[in-house]
Amino acid sequence: MLDVGYELIVTRGFTSVGLSELLKTAEVPKGSFYHYFKSKEQFGEAMIQDYFNKYFEQLTARFTNT
């Protein structure tokens, strides 16, 4: 769901993507979404955190394998 959200938000912007569209595109039931996130904003925070975690993993791998 984070990857789908990232693709939608990068192309259209966070405020332009509605929760219903995100859930439909990711094929995730609304109840499942709210089990993990309290709001769309919390989802956005998790998405950004996931992005930076992946980025730092790539940096670490690059600099430890040289």
Automatic annotation (TrEMBL):
| Segments forming domain HTH tetR-type | 1-55
Which keywords annotate this record? DNA-binding, Transcription, Transcription regulation
Reading the lineage from the top rank, the first entry is: Bacteria
Start-end of DNA-binding region: 18-37
Which GO molecular-function terms appear in the entry? Answer: DNA binding
Q: Could you say which residues form the signal peptide?
A: none
**Which named protein is this?**
TetR family transcriptional regulator
Protein source organism: Vibrio parahaemolyticus
